[in-house]
Amino acid sequence: MLSDIRLSMFLAQKSITKGNKGTLVLTIFIMALVFVNSVFVSSLFLGLTNTINEQMINTMYGTVVIEPKKDEKYVDGVYSLKQKISSVPGVTGVSAQYVTGAVLSYKDKSGAWSVHSINPDDEVTVTTIHNFMIDGEYLGKQDENEIMLGKEISGGYGGDDEDSSLGVKVGDTIDVLFNNGVKRSYRVKGIFGVNFRGADATAYVSQKEMASILGMEDKASQILIRTWDIGNEDRYVKQFLGLGVSETIKPWQNYASMVGDITESFDVIAMLISGIGLFVAGVTIFIIIYMNTISKRRQIGISRAVGIKESVIINTYFLQAMFIVTCGIVAGLLIMFSLVVPWFVSHPLDFSIGKISLLILPERVSISAISLVIAAVIAGLVPSIMAVRETIVEAMWGN
Known about the structure:
The chain has 399 residues and is an alpha+beta fold. The chain has 2 domains: 2-56 and 259-397, no CATH class; 64-229, no CATH class. 54% of the residues lie in helices and 20% in strands. The protein is built from 13 helices and 14 strands. It has helices spanning 2-18, 21-61, 78-86, 120-123, 151-154, 197-200, 207-214, 233-242, 257-295, 297-305, 310-346, 362-389, 392-397; strands at residues 64-67, 75-76, 91-106, 109-118, 133-136, 146-150, 173-178, 183-192, 202-206, 219-220, 222-227, 248-251, 349-351, 354-356. A 6-stranded mixed β-barrel has the order 3-4-9-6-8-7. A two-stranded antiparallel ribbon has the order 2-10. Helix 2 packs across helix 11 (310-346), helix 2 (21-61) runs antiparallel to helix 12 (362-389) and helix 9 runs parallel beside helix 12. The longest helix has 41 residues, at 21-61.
């Protein structure tokens, strides 16, 4: 058995070293490109999904959201509730918001958007909007008669929907008609843009201002919570329930159903693209091995005539295929991590949802490598098995 393996390795080595070097290098390069393509597409889609998730957490929901009880409109006792939540280890920020619809108008333009009231000191511990001020300043805790707008409301600054925006700048005064019928005029204090439409189509006023409009204290539409780690939201939910929090508690994933659908679609697209690449790789190796067996048909016949086993001949071509695909994977890893990844780290794609880079997971890389190996093995075995099925006379005389 061991001698057969050694003989197969010897014959494979001779076939590789004596073969056409240009064809060998080109085939390895094709394998490398197939591997890079598979890893790249998967990593790009993962990076896109990860960016969407991060934007939802950083600009809209935090990691856990507390909403009013069923059939109730507000969360009551906000101050004491925030104290309870803040006492849980791992909670890094808590921000209560009141959310209402309003019609914002400026000169001859108007539109309906969501207005959130915040305590800016609390909000900066949960969301990162304060890091994305395009113009003007972030809200202050005592600000009255001032408002902060997302760029989709203000217009300009690269917004996606200029036609429906107000076309205002910092310092302009806009009118806001709230759902309860109260109308106020506000000076635009700041404009922000996080490149995430859900957040950029939001306006903010201070809690003090909203309290004067609604005439109520210690109530909120939602309480956003930021935790030190992401992925353990269920554990935090249990801890909050254990503290006696009876309101509705939801992890951020509950608001990301759309992202889940997008992720599934991306997975299907990645599988299709990778499948096409694997098919190309398999066909390439099949052609190389098949042409090799055709050109060495007589040699194979003579080898069998002098007593070399069929399994040795099959293993010879199997080892050639494994050599090609292994070199291709190694070359692909070098291309990926020495060229592609550094480039995307320094030059992320600037999409409307944020900056997209590659998210490379070791398991995805392993799956791509294993898939390519399987395709190569199948493509290498088929022509070699076909070659030894001929009788020795047919192989030697080409009949």
